Automatic annotation (TrEMBL):
Residues 489-529 are annotated as: Disordered. It comes from the Bacteria. It comes from Actinomadura miaoliensis. It is a multi-pass membrane protein. Its main location: membrane. This is Glycosyltransferase family 39 protein. Residues 82-230 form the Glycosyltransferase RgtA/B/C/D-like domain. It is found in: Cell membrane.
């Protein structure tokens, strides 16, 4: 019999639904994943990417589409889905992260179902539990981004592929192939890099390659407009660097859950791949196991290789490969006696607790917008002004809006909604200098940048080097500093460090978009994704 990536017995078990013990196999991982996701859900502070989600979701769909035509189109579908969530439930940490918790629970349940169809209920249960307790899945279950739903759709697409291949023998399968194509297209619209899943799927479907090609081709064609638009927005990921050894180590660390579990995890994968199945009804043949390995390895390797030329790799872009690892580890544990497998699984779960606690620290994200906002909330006075050294920290105003109520955003020319940008457009430095003359107290949010651009350097000169402002106090938060300044010469326009101070009357008022003149404001800095 010719070899197949997915065994005949496995494909047969993908048919139909589940009942009885099968239902329990799925619902236990779903419930555990949901509970793990809710654990300290609101403890980590919102960070910049989540603040973008909130800011765009608060806009009308028309305003959001206007933004997406210029930047961040790859996240467009997710933003539109989050619009009613924010409108109904608000923009608190729990409200905006709960959809990601549900996505992680769906991924755990679907992985259990897939494991049950590929092997047996025990394998499915263990694989689903591994997804449920994974720190990597938990990390993105507690983030207002789409990566857990991309993972769930990747598993759903694989299940539908199995179902469609199983129907090949009876001449049917049109509905299954149509559903497969629709799910792959939806997955691509949520995040394009998830379409790398079609590479291992192509090998799995080689016995019915024509119909697979039609379904996958239709899915890719449906995502093509997004891909073409995203190419024009390439600048938004210019901050990503070429991958190196640290990226590979981080990939292994996140997949295993912690660095000292990397070797045990690899050992279980080797056991799953190397030792042949000898137990009656085990059902996961060589082709199935090597197919799972392709799902685990091919997308990350392909993206890492491409990123050596055009840097685009981040771990979260390949999170959808984690269920394949969970299934392989479950198959490895299946080779062990039941008591040994239970002991190993218990050790793995206990060993993951410190990693779970770490991702739930208040400052566990790249920056801590909550601490920044708390500092300003407790120290602000009526009439205070606010200046962002790098304007993407303006996103904090959307994440924790109440902290900034009553403050004047001194550099803002046009809001993000009006300008069709994420962070809004800022006034030229001459207009900023004139506005600073009217400020008595200034909150200056600063982040050290390796290569600040000209407007950021101008802010530094006006605030820190002009001699017009005296530092009252400086606070640190993860991601930067916030400093309170007092104006020593109210009514006098601060110099830029070269020309000295001038009276406000001596400086012509710069034309700004709000005043009907031609805008000299710089465009918003591209957003991380």
């Amino acid at each position: 019999m010719p070899r197949r990536v997915l065994s005949v017995r496995a494909i047969g078990r993908a048919a139909g639904g589940f009942r009885g013990a099968g239902a329990l196999t799925v619902t236990i991982p779903v419930a555990l994943s949901f509970a793990v996701g809710l654990w300290a859900l609101a403890r980590p502070a919102l960070w910049r990417d989540e603040a973008v989600t909130i800011g765009v979701a608060r806009r009308s769909p028309w305003d959001a589409l206007r933004l997406l035509s210029d930047i961040d189109a790859v996240h467009g579908l997710y933003y539109l889905v989050m619009h009613p969530v924010v409108a109904v439930f608000g923009a608190g940490e729990t409200a905006v992260r709960l959809p990601s918790v549900l996505g992680a629970a769906a991924a755990a349940g679907l992985t259990a179902w897939l494991g049950m169809r590929l092997a047996d209920a025990r394998t499915g249960l263990v694989a689903g539990l591994l997804v449920a307790v994974s720190p990597a899945m938990s990390r993105y279950a507690q983030e207002a981004r789409q990566y857990t739903w991309v993972t769930a759709l990747a598993v759903a697409a694989t299940l539908l592929l199995l179902r469609a291949l199983e129907r090949r023998g009876d001449g049917g399968g049109r509905r299954e192939w149509a559903a497969y194509g629709a799910v792959v297209a939806l997955m691509g619209w949520l995040h394009m890099f998830a379409l790398l899943l079609v590479l291992p799927h192509a090998v799995a479907a080689r016995r019915d390659l024509r119909r697979w090609a039609v379904a996958a081709g239709c899915a890719l064609a449906a995502v093509l407009p997004l891909a073409l638009l995203s190419v024009t927005q390439r600048a938004q990921v210019n901050w990503i660097t070429r991958p190196g050894r640290d990226d590979l180590w981080y990939l292994l660390d996140m997949l295993a859950g912690t660095h000292w579990l990397i070797l045990p995890t690899l050992a279980l994968v080797v056991v799953a791949l190397w030792r042949p199945s000898t137990r009656p009804g085990e059902g996961a043949g060589d082709d199935t196991r090597w197919g799972l390995l392709a799902w685990l390895v091919v997308p990350p390797v392909a993206l890492l290789a491409a990123s050596l030329v055009v840097p685009t790799y981040l771990f979260r872009y390949v999170l959808f490969c984690f269920p394949a690892l969970a299934l392989l580890v479950a198959l490895g544990l299946r080779r062990l006696p039941a008591w040994a497998a239970a002991a190993v699984l218990a050790v793995l779960v206990v060993a993951l607790v410190p990693a779970h606690r770490q991702v739930r620290e208040p400052d566990a994200r790249a920056d801590d917008l909550r601490t920044l906002s708390t500092i300003i909330r407790t120290g602000k006075r009526p009439g205070d002004a606010l200046l962002f050294h790098q304007q993407y920290y303006r996103r904090a105003m959307g994440a924790y809006a109440d902290a900034y109520a009553g403050l004047r955003d001194i550099a803002l020319g046009r809001t993000g909604t009006r300008s069709g940008t994420i962070d809004g457009e800022e006034v030229p430095s001459a207009e900023l200098a004139r506005r600073l003359a009217d400020v008595e107290r200034l909150w200056y949010v600063h982040r050290n940048a390796k290569a600040p651009d000209a407007p950021d350097r101008a802010k530094e000169r006006l605030v820190r080097r002009s001699g017009a402002f005296r530092k009252v106090k400086r606070w640190r938060f993860k991601g930067g500093t916030v400093t309170l300044y007092e104006n020593l010469r109210p009514g006098t326009v601060p110099g830029d460090g070269d020309g000295g101070a001038r009276s406000a009357a001596a400086v012509p008022k710069a034309l700004s978009p709000a005043g009907g003149g031609r805008s000299a404001a710089r465009p918003a800095r591209p957003a991380p994704v």
